[in-house]
Amino acid sequence: MAFSHLSHVECPRCGLTHDADTLLNLCSCGSPLLARYDLAGVEKPDGPNSLWRYHQVLPVRDPDTVAAVSMGEGMTPLVNLHRTGQSLGITLLMKDEGLVPTGSFKARGAAVGVARALELGVRGIAMPTNGNAGAAWALYAARAGMRSVIAMPRDAPLITREEVEISGGELVLVDGVISDAGKVIAERLKTEDLFDASTLKEPYRIEGKKTMGYEIAEQLGWRSPDVIVYPTGGGVGLIGIHKALLEMRELGWVTGELPRLVAVQSSGCAPIVKAFESGAETAEFWEDARTIAFGITVPKPIGDFLILDALRETGGTAVAVDDEQILADQAETARLEGVFLCPEGAATISAVRTLRKDGWIADGEEVVVLNTGAGIKYPGIRL
Ligand SMILES: *Cc1c(COP(=O)(O)O)cnc(C)c1O
Ligand SMILES: [Zn+2]
Fold this sequence. Notes:
Largest sheet: 6 strands, mixed
Enzyme class: lyase
GO molecular function: L-serine ammonia-lyase activity; pyridoxal phosphate binding; threonine deaminase activity; threonine synthase activity
Oligomer: single chain
CATH architecture of the domain at 78-104 and 207-377: 3-Layer(aba) Sandwich
Strand content: 15-25%
Helix content: 25-40%
Strand order of the largest sheet: 4-5-13-10-11-12
CATH class of the domain at 78-104 and 207-377: Alpha Beta
Order of helices and strands: EEEHEHEHEHEHEHEHEHEHHEHHE
InterPro entries: Ser/Thr_Dehydratase, Ser/Thr_deHydtase_PyrdxlP-BS, TrpB-like_PALP, TrpB-like_PALP_sf
Bound molecules: pyridoxal-5'-phosphate, zinc ion
Number of helices: 12
Structural class: alpha/beta
Protein name: Threonine synthase
Shape: globular
Mean pLDDT: 97
Radius of gyration: 19 Å
Keywords: Lyase, Pyridoxal phosphate
């Protein structure tokens, strides 16, 4: 039995297939690419207590590469938020991604993306980031013996800068938002031997993030919840969870209706909510994007059409919440549940309140929210 059942890489827009054992960025048509597996013969996981238990549906071919790069990321707990759930008349479970190395779920994408890049001969990576992705990729690159060049907005959380610097990564601070950081990286890529690891511009970060979907189903005893609520920036986690659900359905690991997927954004940067509500297939660039939920400040996600597909195909929706409500729910959840959510995670609680109030979430439903990082990564945000 093969360690990885990776068969090829496919374009979700034009359908072109690509050789998975070459270095790939975007498709020739400009779309992000998705990894495909030969699912016949894939068995239910019995591996380590980390995301690598799903190695058969991950792209890394050599177990020694995993051993060299992994820091035990994944298999985070589903924590029952009893009091909040009870007051809303639902079962509310929070998947706590604050517990992975580097304190955000970005470690999942970095672990798998860096391991696969290492296997394919990459010696240095570059990317724009809102902070957490750059921090995770700089640290995992260090572990893999690779160089990293990370560009981030000057206002990104201070701790993420320090994570890049202490790992020996090259930190470039940019005035503006993540799309401005992207322009800096594009220039560097023209002249230097660096692999472009920008969000969805290589096919394997999403493979790491999809494991959140596998874990939720496995932790519920191989079934889906009614609703999964995700704080959406680039949307990689949401597209990844959707991909995992489709793969698990094909594998016969889950049956019946897929959970309704919900994208949560801040009202200060809500291009996906706007596109969803207007029925558009892609998002428009959001001008003057600004929110305290820094990880979801993405004015124009490159995978917008895939995010919108995932919402519509699952009967899901998109919700914008205000920063004041996010801060209120961050405090309320700490007080009621003893959990210090990151602001992006707190936004999912605000969204659940909104959707419960207008009846979109029904009485007694089971809802899983993703706390995508640790609240302690954002000192000073409440002052
Ligand atoms: C990056 C990030 C997000 C958004 O993730 P995407 O998968 O890019 O949508 C949410 N929360 C935190 C804490 C993040 O760092
Ligand atoms: Zn294509």
